[in-house]
Amino acid sequence: MSAVIETQTTWLNADFWELLDRLEGRHRRVQSEYDNARRQLERVDPKIGSEIQRAWTRYCEVIAELDRAAGELELLRLSSS
Questions:
Q1: C-beta atoms surrounding 74 within 10 Å
Q2: Largest pairwise CA distance in the chain
Q3: What does the angle CA 47 – CA 53 – CA 59 come to, to the nearest 5 degrees?
Q4: pLDDT greater than 80 at residue 20
Q5: How confident is the model at residue 2 (pLDDT cuts 50, 70, 90)?
Q6: In this predicted model, what pLDDT tens digit does every residue of 46-72 receive, in sequence order?
Q7: Which of 9, 23, 69, 76 has the fewest C-beta atoms lying within 10 Å of its C-beta?
Q8: What is d(CA 73, CA 13) in angstroms, rounded to the nearest whole number?
Q9: What are phi and psi of 56, to 5 degrees?
Q10: 8 Å CB contact between 80 and 11
């Protein structure tokens, strides 16, 4: 029983919640950027190669950042369980 209480105390401290709030905020921001990048990509005229390349590059950057943010959230979740 004391091991359960110790574990709960560890992941319920203020630092944990602050980090969780920051990571969730980052994840929401990057998710929004992803949605915007995807919409921009969908609006690009396929005949304009350079615009497609720029949009695709931005899309890939945002996807990579989204993956990093999701990975950090998962690491935090795993470390608190």
A1: 11
A2: 65
A3: 120
A4: yes
A5: low
A6: 778 788 888 889 999 999 999 999 999
A7: 9
A8: 17
A9: -65, -40
A10: yes
